[in-house]
Amino acid sequence: MVTFHKIISGLILSAVLTSCQFSSDANKALLDTGSRKEIVFTIANNNQMMEEMMNEILSSNNAKMMMQKNEKMLNMMLEDHASTVKIMKGNPALMHNIMSDMMEVFNSDTSAMISMCKTMMQNKPMMDMMQKMKTGDQGMPHKM
Q1: For the chain, what percent of residues have pLDDT higher than 90?
Q2: What backbone torsions phi and psi does residue 120 show, to the nearest 5 degrees?
Q3: Which of 62, 81, 105, 106 fits as disulfide partner to 113, beta carbons 3.0 to 4.6 Å?
Q4: pLDDT tens-place string over residues 55-98
């Protein structure tokens, strides 16, 4: 019986030590180009893993900044309007960051500001909401 407990304890200790080495093994795997490509491919083709990865990306300030600076990615997001709206509704902090960045652009680029103003003025619901805000109407919905 004592021998059995020693064997079980040894196995548990081995399992714990092995699991502690995972992060270094993961780093080694990611440093290898072939392994990294295989991992990325696997994640990209698995819905659950891709959702987990996107959640991690959207919760990372570094990843958000990289996405905002990547022109190809921004163009892709703008082309797929429905998905972009869904992502922004699901992540108000990301939406706020993007809107803040846009406002900074408008402060230094009057033609971009004029274009946005014209677009907003042509949108009746937007104009109605802005009128309600101007008059201080408390019946205005506050959804984001």
Answers
A1: 1
A2: -65, -40
A3: 106
A4: 777 777 777 777 667 777 767 766 777 777 777 788 888 788 87
Burial class of residue 6 in the structure, from the number of CB atoms within 10 Å of its CB (0-12 exposed, 13-18 middle, 19+ buried): exposed
- Cβ pair 55, 61 in contact under 8 A: no
| φ and ψ of 102, to 5 deg | -65, -40
Cβ neighbourhood burial of 45 (10 Å; 0-12, 13-18, 19+): exposed
Q: What pLDDT was estimated at residue 120?
A: 87
Range list of H helices, 32-123:
33-44, 47-58, 61-69, 71-79, 81-90, 92-108, 110-121
Q: What pLDDT score does 10 carry?
A: 47
User: Helix, strand or coil for residue 87?
Assistant: helix
